Amino acid sequence: MAAWSDNIRKVEPYVPGEQPKDTDVIKLNTNENPYGPSQRVKNAIVDIDTLRLYPDPTASALVDVLAEYHGVDPSQVFVGVGSDDVLAMSFLTFFNSDKPILFPDITYSFYDVWAELFSIPYERPALDENFRLVKENYYRENGGIVFPNPNAPTGIYEDIKNVEDIVSHNKDSIVIVDEAYIDFGGESALGLIDKYDNLVVVRTFSKSRSMAGLRIGYAISNPVLIKALNDVKYSYNSYTMNRPSLIMGTESVKDDEYFKETVSKVVATRERFVEAIKPLDFTCLPSSANFVFATHKDIPAKEIFQAAKDAHIYVRYFDKPRIDNYLRISIGTDEEMDKFTEFLTNYIQER
Amino acid sequence: MAAWSDNIRKVEPYVPGEQPKDTDVIKLNTNENPYGPSQRVKNAIVDIDTLRLYPDPTASALVDVLAEYHGVDPSQVFVGVGSDDVLAMSFLTFFNSDKPILFPDITYSFYDVWAELFSIPYERPALDENFRLVKENYYRENGGIVFPNPNAPTGIYEDIKNVEDIVSHNKDSIVIVDEAYIDFGGESALGLIDKYDNLVVVRTFSKSRSMAGLRIGYAISNPVLIKALNDVKYSYNSYTMNRPSLIMGTESVKDDEYFKETVSKVVATRERFVEAIKPLDFTCLPSSANFVFATHKDIPAKEIFQAAKDAHIYVRYFDKPRIDNYLRISIGTDEEMDKFTEFLTNYIQER
């Protein structure tokens, strides 16, 4: 091998869920919203001629509308290319200690990938036997903390009191609460932003806002931490948010009625689906997200995963310790979930 | 200060050119194309309902069309959110040596920002007194090499033979040739890709393709280096290119006639403008880009910059050693350049 090969960064990349090009499938594998974006987004006009010009590097239209929506100052909002970009940028900005950062053993599978990418030491305290966070595990010296609430891929929401306990016990560290799924259940940590100067809350447009295809995520914190994030962002890429994202993202936030309506529909379908597969001997962890994490009494999850895929129904399977007998099933429309329930019923009967 | 402040990455961010919100200005400060994107881009249909779905993480439609356009295999193409994203990702991927990377003292001002961000040691061999690259300065041990051709902000193109000499003298390092402006003049290093396994060529849609507002850049190299780049990209953000970028970017590449026509117009206007300001005692460095780097016999560049801005004409001024008496003037339409020439004529007379 050439000498330069020694200088190439070696990584074990994150493997995203499959994005089948075949559109004739029921796609319940990457937690997308079954409903499209708001009519306001459809009515938004992207003037193609202006695409010759750079977008606003401060993304101020989007930042302002998000600040207003959440009742914070624009200096408290950072936007990026999906919450993955926001989280990666946060790791790069905030986690520069020799001490290990902490996140759960079972959680979003990108955290350890970012830690490896940026050579950040990390430890992964185990969730308890019910997949609950043990807050006391985070009461020790660390270089930072990150966890999702609700957690992924379990869907379990931790009470905001526990979140606050972790934040308040770690005043020397930055604590990132990844709220990708909070709109589907639970209380946000946003109410704690004014009280703690070490808290960063991260959100995404990809789930509750039906805009995974546009790539928009954001962080809310105090102006000091948001400035630190922006400084790093401007040291990486001045113009991350393209014009269509800025225009359509802004319109989306303005339609709160549609947003709440679709979120309610997804939540209602989730509860309906959980009840529907119970008689088939499935158990779901209590979900506050737009997916359920389900296990069957007898049939290995991997087998169901493969059989569903053969029937053109995509769900997510993680071949990882402790969760390798679970399926993560995104919540689609009632009709899609009925079809999946029907498939499961037949599959179990014929097996 | 709280203890966490020690762990925050401190950076001196890149400062992009101003993006005035006032549209009633002549904007010649960030090297955008005065002509809008192709009619094919205008005709492209972005189905808003599909925005609920993640984009193709491999960006294969765009990768395939670029591969075909450049006569390479799709495994040789990497795409990102503007060439800044592609370059930043390349620094992170390829420049992991303890030896310093090398780039010119006068060049794109993001290179040292990325080196600082990722803690990469670097040295900056000086351009000669005519702002030409001294290739022999790059014939020494290093951790990688990066330079633009044509260079920015000078606009000077180095003969492809010199580029090849640098690549061939550095078989143990990755050499990145940043060809943001190559469509406006000079021979691309793409012809050397098959010959050298240490060469990466970076391109952008922001200048010649009239699409700064969409944020698309790409790299072409051999499949080994492109895979290394993709591995790091997938470790950072699986879905960087949003659906509008994929759809409209692909359409743009398909309209080669319009592309060549607009590039020719910009080049013709550039030559016309250089001649027009000569009688006003301006000297321009020989430009192969969509901008000129101009200095006046008597009047300090900073004064002209400010006077032009007061007259709602934006050009770029760099308060940096060796170039602080130059203006970087993007090439607009003939009409815009005539207005700027008229302004300069009056300004010099009345001064």
Distance between the termini of chain A: 51 Å
**Largest interface pair:** A-B, 86 and 86 residues
Relevant CATH superfamily of the largest domain in chain A: Type I PLP-dependent aspartate aminotransferase-like (Major domain)
Low-confidence parts of chain A = none
The overall pLDDT of chain A, averaged over residues, is 97
Count of β-strands of chain A: 13
Q: What would the CATH topology of the largest domain in chain A be?
A: Aspartate Aminotransferase, domain 2
The radius of gyration over CA of chain A amounts to 21 Å
Q: Report the total helices of chain A.
A: 10
Strand residue content of chain A: 5-15%
Helix proportion of residues of chain A, in percent?
Answer: 25-40%
Tally the structural domains of chain A.
Answer: 2
Q: Judging from the principal axes of the Cα atoms, what is the shape of chain A?
A: globular
Question: What's the multimeric state?
Answer: homodimer
Largest sheet of chain A: 5 strands, mixed
Pathway (chains A, B): Amino-acid biosynthesis; L-histidine biosynthesis; L-histidine from 5-phospho-alpha-D-ribose 1-diphosphate: step 7/9
Enzyme class (chains A, B): transferase
Catalytic activity (chains A, B): L-histidinol phosphate + 2-oxoglutarate = 3-(imidazol-4-yl)-2-oxopropyl phosphate + L-glutamate
Pfam families (chains A, B): Aminotran_1_2
Annotation keywords:
globular; alpha/beta; 351 residues; pyridoxal phosphate (chains A, B); Aspartate Aminotransferase, domain 2; Aspartate Aminotransferase, domain 1; homodimer; 10 helices
